[in-house]
Write the C-alpha coordinates for this entry.
Amino acid sequence: MQGLVTVFGGSGFVGGQVVRALAKAGYRVRVAVRQPNLAYRMRMLGDVGQIEVVQANARVPSSVARALDGAEACVNLVGVLWESGRQKFQSIHMMAARNIAEAAAKAGVARLVHVSAIGAKADSESKYFRTKAEGEAAVRAAFPGATIVRPSLVFGVEDKFFNKFAQIAALAPVMPLVGGDTRVQPVFVGDVAAVIAKAVASPAAVGVTYELGGPTVYTMREILQLVLTETGHARPLAALPWPVASLIGSLGDIQASILPIAPPLTTDQVEMLKTDNVADGGLPGLAEAGVVPTAVEAVVPTYLYRYRKGGQYAETPAGAF
Protein backbone atom coordinates (compact mmCIF):
# COMPACT_ATOMS: atom_id res chain seq x y z
CA MET A 1 0.00 0.00 0.00
CA GLN A 2 1.00 3.60 -0.55
CA GLY A 3 1.14 6.39 2.05
CA LEU A 4 -1.48 7.48 4.54
CA VAL A 5 -4.23 9.95 3.56
CA THR A 6 -6.40 11.55 6.24
CA VAL A 7 -9.92 12.36 5.06
CA PHE A 8 -11.85 14.83 7.20
CA GLY A 9 -15.60 14.41 6.86
CA GLY A 10 -15.11 11.08 5.11
CA SER A 11 -18.31 9.44 6.30
CA GLY A 12 -20.67 11.66 4.29
CA PHE A 13 -22.24 11.23 0.87
CA VAL A 14 -19.18 12.43 -1.08
CA GLY A 15 -16.73 11.23 1.57
CA GLY A 16 -17.67 7.59 1.22
CA GLN A 17 -16.89 7.67 -2.49
CA VAL A 18 -13.60 9.52 -1.89
CA VAL A 19 -12.51 6.92 0.69
CA ARG A 20 -13.40 4.13 -1.74
CA ALA A 21 -11.46 5.78 -4.59
CA LEU A 22 -8.37 6.33 -2.41
CA ALA A 23 -8.48 2.74 -1.13
CA LYS A 24 -8.83 1.45 -4.67
CA ALA A 25 -5.76 3.49 -5.64
CA GLY A 26 -3.80 1.69 -2.93
CA TYR A 27 -3.60 4.33 -0.20
CA ARG A 28 -4.04 3.72 3.50
CA VAL A 29 -6.92 5.92 4.60
CA ARG A 30 -7.68 7.48 7.96
CA VAL A 31 -11.26 8.70 8.15
CA ALA A 32 -11.52 11.54 10.67
CA VAL A 33 -15.09 12.15 11.86
CA ARG A 34 -16.86 13.63 14.89
CA GLN A 35 -18.82 10.45 15.62
CA PRO A 36 -16.73 7.39 14.66
CA ASN A 37 -19.40 5.03 16.01
CA LEU A 38 -21.58 6.09 13.09
CA ALA A 39 -18.85 5.51 10.49
CA TYR A 40 -18.20 1.79 11.00
CA ARG A 41 -19.11 1.08 7.35
CA MET A 42 -16.02 2.96 6.19
CA ARG A 43 -13.75 0.05 7.10
CA MET A 44 -15.55 -2.15 4.58
CA LEU A 45 -14.58 0.07 1.65
CA GLY A 46 -11.04 -1.32 1.46
CA ASP A 47 -8.89 -4.30 2.37
CA VAL A 48 -8.49 -5.50 5.95
CA GLY A 49 -6.59 -2.86 7.92
CA GLN A 50 -6.44 -0.42 5.00
CA ILE A 51 -9.01 1.99 6.42
CA GLU A 52 -9.17 3.24 9.99
CA VAL A 53 -11.74 5.53 11.60
CA VAL A 54 -10.69 8.07 14.22
CA GLN A 55 -12.46 10.75 16.20
CA ALA A 56 -11.70 14.33 15.23
CA ASN A 57 -13.49 17.65 15.43
CA ALA A 58 -12.31 20.02 12.71
CA ARG A 59 -13.21 22.99 14.92
CA VAL A 60 -10.58 21.91 17.48
CA PRO A 61 -6.93 22.39 16.30
CA SER A 62 -5.47 19.77 18.66
CA SER A 63 -7.97 17.22 17.40
CA VAL A 64 -7.03 17.98 13.80
CA ALA A 65 -3.31 17.66 14.56
CA ARG A 66 -3.81 14.18 16.05
CA ALA A 67 -5.73 13.04 12.98
CA LEU A 68 -2.90 14.21 10.71
CA ASP A 69 -0.13 12.42 12.60
CA GLY A 70 1.92 10.46 10.06
CA ALA A 71 -0.23 11.44 7.05
CA GLU A 72 1.33 12.23 3.68
CA ALA A 73 -1.80 13.89 2.34
CA CYS A 74 -5.20 15.02 3.52
CA VAL A 75 -8.60 15.79 2.06
CA ASN A 76 -11.04 18.24 3.65
CA LEU A 77 -14.67 17.40 2.90
CA VAL A 78 -16.14 19.01 6.01
CA GLY A 79 -19.20 21.11 5.22
CA VAL A 80 -22.86 21.70 6.08
CA LEU A 81 -25.83 22.61 3.88
CA TRP A 82 -27.72 24.35 6.70
CA GLU A 83 -26.88 25.71 10.13
CA SER A 84 -27.89 23.90 13.32
CA GLY A 85 -26.51 23.86 16.85
CA ARG A 86 -22.76 24.44 16.78
CA GLN A 87 -22.57 23.54 13.11
CA LYS A 88 -22.47 27.06 11.70
CA PHE A 89 -21.28 28.04 8.22
CA GLN A 90 -18.55 30.28 9.59
CA SER A 91 -17.15 27.70 12.01
CA ILE A 92 -17.26 24.81 9.53
CA HIS A 93 -16.47 26.36 6.16
CA MET A 94 -13.89 28.91 7.27
CA MET A 95 -12.53 28.19 10.76
CA ALA A 96 -12.39 24.40 10.36
CA ALA A 97 -10.83 24.76 6.89
CA ARG A 98 -8.19 27.08 8.33
CA ASN A 99 -7.47 24.66 11.20
CA ILE A 100 -6.93 21.78 8.78
CA ALA A 101 -4.73 23.79 6.40
CA GLU A 102 -2.57 25.22 9.21
CA ALA A 103 -2.19 21.83 10.89
CA ALA A 104 -1.33 20.17 7.56
CA ALA A 105 1.35 22.77 6.84
CA LYS A 106 2.80 22.41 10.34
CA ALA A 107 2.84 18.61 10.11
CA GLY A 108 4.64 18.66 6.77
CA VAL A 109 1.79 17.06 4.86
CA ALA A 110 2.72 16.99 1.17
CA ARG A 111 -0.74 17.36 -0.38
CA LEU A 112 -3.96 19.03 0.69
CA VAL A 113 -7.19 18.80 -1.29
CA HIS A 114 -9.87 21.21 -0.10
CA VAL A 115 -13.44 20.72 -1.32
CA SER A 116 -15.39 23.95 -1.76
CA ALA A 117 -18.32 24.68 -4.09
CA ILE A 118 -19.11 26.36 -7.40
CA GLY A 119 -20.54 29.74 -6.47
CA ALA A 120 -18.02 30.43 -3.70
CA LYS A 121 -17.66 34.22 -3.80
CA ALA A 122 -16.73 36.71 -1.11
CA ASP A 123 -19.56 39.06 -2.13
CA SER A 124 -22.29 36.41 -2.46
CA GLU A 125 -25.67 37.08 -0.84
CA SER A 126 -25.66 33.45 0.29
CA LYS A 127 -23.87 32.85 3.56
CA TYR A 128 -23.04 29.31 2.41
CA PHE A 129 -21.20 30.55 -0.67
CA ARG A 130 -19.64 33.50 1.16
CA THR A 131 -18.12 31.33 3.89
CA LYS A 132 -16.96 28.81 1.28
CA ALA A 133 -15.00 31.64 -0.34
CA GLU A 134 -13.57 32.67 3.04
CA GLY A 135 -12.53 29.07 3.62
CA GLU A 136 -10.72 28.96 0.28
CA ALA A 137 -8.84 32.15 1.14
CA ALA A 138 -7.83 30.78 4.55
CA VAL A 139 -6.61 27.54 2.99
CA ARG A 140 -4.57 29.34 0.34
CA ALA A 141 -2.98 31.56 3.00
CA ALA A 142 -1.93 28.62 5.19
CA PHE A 143 -1.18 26.05 2.47
CA PRO A 144 -0.46 27.80 -0.90
CA GLY A 145 -0.06 24.52 -2.78
CA ALA A 146 -3.50 23.22 -1.84
CA THR A 147 -5.75 21.86 -4.57
CA ILE A 148 -9.25 23.35 -4.41
CA VAL A 149 -12.16 21.40 -5.88
CA ARG A 150 -15.44 23.22 -6.52
CA PRO A 151 -18.24 20.82 -7.52
CA SER A 152 -21.67 21.87 -8.69
CA LEU A 153 -24.71 20.03 -7.27
CA VAL A 154 -23.51 16.48 -6.61
CA PHE A 155 -25.81 13.59 -7.47
CA GLY A 156 -25.72 9.86 -6.77
CA VAL A 157 -27.72 7.10 -5.11
CA GLU A 158 -27.67 8.74 -1.66
CA ASP A 159 -27.88 12.37 -2.76
CA LYS A 160 -30.08 14.97 -1.11
CA PHE A 161 -30.97 16.60 -4.41
CA PHE A 162 -32.82 14.26 -6.78
CA ASN A 163 -33.99 12.08 -3.88
CA LYS A 164 -35.45 15.10 -2.12
CA PHE A 165 -37.49 16.17 -5.14
CA ALA A 166 -38.58 12.58 -5.82
CA GLN A 167 -39.94 12.31 -2.26
CA ILE A 168 -41.93 15.50 -2.79
CA ALA A 169 -43.23 14.19 -6.12
CA ALA A 170 -44.42 11.00 -4.47
CA LEU A 171 -46.20 12.72 -1.58
CA ALA A 172 -47.35 16.20 -2.61
CA PRO A 173 -50.23 17.04 -4.97
CA VAL A 174 -48.11 19.75 -6.63
CA MET A 175 -44.37 20.20 -7.15
CA PRO A 176 -43.15 23.52 -5.71
CA LEU A 177 -40.66 25.27 -7.99
CA VAL A 178 -38.16 27.83 -6.70
CA GLY A 179 -35.91 29.60 -9.20
CA GLY A 180 -37.28 27.86 -12.26
CA ASP A 181 -34.87 29.54 -14.69
CA THR A 182 -31.79 29.14 -12.49
CA ARG A 183 -29.23 26.92 -14.23
CA VAL A 184 -27.43 24.03 -12.56
CA GLN A 185 -24.82 21.55 -13.79
CA PRO A 186 -25.15 18.37 -11.70
CA VAL A 187 -21.95 16.32 -11.36
CA PHE A 188 -21.78 12.62 -10.49
CA VAL A 189 -20.36 11.83 -7.05
CA GLY A 190 -18.08 9.15 -8.49
CA ASP A 191 -16.53 11.70 -10.86
CA VAL A 192 -15.90 14.13 -8.00
CA ALA A 193 -14.24 11.35 -5.97
CA ALA A 194 -12.07 10.38 -8.94
CA VAL A 195 -10.81 13.96 -9.34
CA ILE A 196 -9.96 14.17 -5.64
CA ALA A 197 -8.10 10.84 -5.67
CA LYS A 198 -6.13 11.91 -8.75
CA ALA A 199 -5.32 15.29 -7.16
CA VAL A 200 -3.78 13.54 -4.16
CA ALA A 201 -1.30 11.79 -6.45
CA SER A 202 -0.75 14.29 -9.27
CA PRO A 203 1.99 16.97 -9.03
CA ALA A 204 0.11 18.83 -11.78
CA ALA A 205 -2.77 19.45 -9.35
CA VAL A 206 -0.68 21.42 -6.83
CA GLY A 207 -2.14 24.91 -6.39
CA VAL A 208 -4.88 24.30 -8.97
CA THR A 209 -8.58 25.16 -8.57
CA TYR A 210 -10.98 22.81 -10.37
CA GLU A 211 -14.63 23.56 -11.08
CA LEU A 212 -16.57 20.36 -11.64
CA GLY A 213 -19.82 20.30 -13.56
CA GLY A 214 -21.47 17.46 -15.41
CA PRO A 215 -21.87 17.23 -19.20
CA THR A 216 -25.28 18.95 -19.26
CA VAL A 217 -26.65 22.24 -17.92
CA TYR A 218 -30.29 22.22 -16.81
CA THR A 219 -32.72 24.78 -15.47
CA MET A 220 -34.39 23.92 -12.19
CA ARG A 221 -37.65 23.59 -14.12
CA GLU A 222 -36.05 20.93 -16.34
CA ILE A 223 -34.67 19.11 -13.29
CA LEU A 224 -38.10 18.85 -11.67
CA GLN A 225 -39.71 17.75 -14.92
CA LEU A 226 -37.08 15.02 -15.25
CA VAL A 227 -37.85 13.84 -11.70
CA LEU A 228 -41.59 13.77 -12.39
CA THR A 229 -41.07 11.79 -15.59
CA GLU A 230 -38.74 9.24 -14.01
CA THR A 231 -40.99 8.68 -10.99
CA GLY A 232 -44.16 8.52 -13.06
CA HIS A 233 -45.98 11.20 -11.07
CA ALA A 234 -48.04 13.74 -12.99
CA ARG A 235 -47.75 16.78 -10.76
CA PRO A 236 -48.23 20.41 -11.84
CA LEU A 237 -45.27 22.70 -11.20
CA ALA A 238 -46.18 25.50 -8.79
CA ALA A 239 -43.72 28.37 -9.25
CA LEU A 240 -43.15 30.14 -5.93
CA PRO A 241 -42.39 33.88 -5.91
CA TRP A 242 -39.18 34.76 -4.08
CA PRO A 243 -40.98 36.34 -1.06
CA VAL A 244 -43.06 33.18 -0.58
CA ALA A 245 -39.97 30.98 -0.94
CA SER A 246 -38.17 33.12 1.66
CA LEU A 247 -41.09 32.76 4.06
CA ILE A 248 -40.98 28.97 3.71
CA GLY A 249 -37.22 29.18 4.16
CA SER A 250 -37.71 31.08 7.44
CA LEU A 251 -39.83 28.22 8.73
CA GLY A 252 -37.07 25.84 7.65
CA ASP A 253 -34.53 27.90 9.59
CA ILE A 254 -36.64 27.50 12.73
CA GLN A 255 -36.98 23.76 12.15
CA ALA A 256 -33.21 23.38 11.66
CA SER A 257 -32.55 25.16 14.97
CA ILE A 258 -34.86 22.79 16.85
CA LEU A 259 -34.82 19.40 15.14
CA PRO A 260 -31.81 17.35 13.94
CA ILE A 261 -33.39 16.64 10.56
CA ALA A 262 -33.00 18.25 7.15
CA PRO A 263 -35.35 21.22 6.65
CA PRO A 264 -37.28 21.31 3.35
CA LEU A 265 -35.82 24.74 2.54
CA THR A 266 -33.86 27.49 4.29
CA THR A 267 -33.55 31.21 3.62
CA ASP A 268 -29.92 30.73 2.60
CA GLN A 269 -30.86 28.02 0.11
CA VAL A 270 -33.35 30.45 -1.41
CA GLU A 271 -30.48 32.91 -1.91
CA MET A 272 -28.40 30.13 -3.49
CA LEU A 273 -31.19 29.41 -5.97
CA LYS A 274 -31.13 33.00 -7.21
CA THR A 275 -27.81 32.48 -9.02
CA ASP A 276 -26.66 29.92 -11.60
CA ASN A 277 -24.52 27.03 -10.38
CA VAL A 278 -22.48 26.35 -13.51
CA ALA A 279 -18.76 25.71 -13.95
CA ASP A 280 -16.54 28.55 -15.15
CA GLY A 281 -15.09 27.63 -18.52
CA GLY A 282 -11.91 29.48 -17.61
CA LEU A 283 -10.97 27.00 -14.89
CA PRO A 284 -9.94 23.34 -15.36
CA GLY A 285 -12.69 20.76 -14.92
CA LEU A 286 -13.31 17.05 -15.26
CA ALA A 287 -11.65 16.78 -18.66
CA GLU A 288 -8.45 18.49 -17.49
CA ALA A 289 -8.37 16.16 -14.48
CA GLY A 290 -8.61 13.15 -16.79
CA VAL A 291 -12.14 12.11 -15.81
CA VAL A 292 -14.90 11.37 -18.34
CA PRO A 293 -18.11 13.07 -17.11
CA THR A 294 -21.10 10.88 -16.26
CA ALA A 295 -24.51 12.02 -17.47
CA VAL A 296 -27.49 12.45 -15.17
CA GLU A 297 -29.53 10.21 -17.46
CA ALA A 298 -27.08 7.35 -16.99
CA VAL A 299 -27.36 7.24 -13.20
CA VAL A 300 -30.48 8.94 -11.83
CA PRO A 301 -32.96 6.41 -13.29
CA THR A 302 -31.13 3.63 -11.40
CA TYR A 303 -32.41 4.96 -8.07
CA LEU A 304 -35.43 7.16 -8.75
CA TYR A 305 -37.49 4.09 -9.68
CA ARG A 306 -37.93 3.61 -5.91
CA TYR A 307 -40.37 6.52 -5.86
CA ARG A 308 -42.70 5.12 -8.53
CA LYS A 309 -46.01 3.64 -7.49
CA GLY A 310 -45.06 -0.02 -7.20
CA GLY A 311 -41.32 0.66 -6.85
CA GLN A 312 -39.12 -1.82 -8.70
CA TYR A 313 -42.19 -3.68 -9.97
CA ALA A 314 -43.70 -0.63 -11.63
CA GLU A 315 -43.68 -0.29 -15.39
CA THR A 316 -41.26 2.23 -16.82
CA PRO A 317 -43.21 5.50 -17.26
CA ALA A 318 -43.60 6.95 -20.74
CA GLY A 319 -40.66 9.19 -21.58
CA ALA A 320 -38.42 7.82 -18.81
CA PHE A 321 -34.86 6.77 -19.57
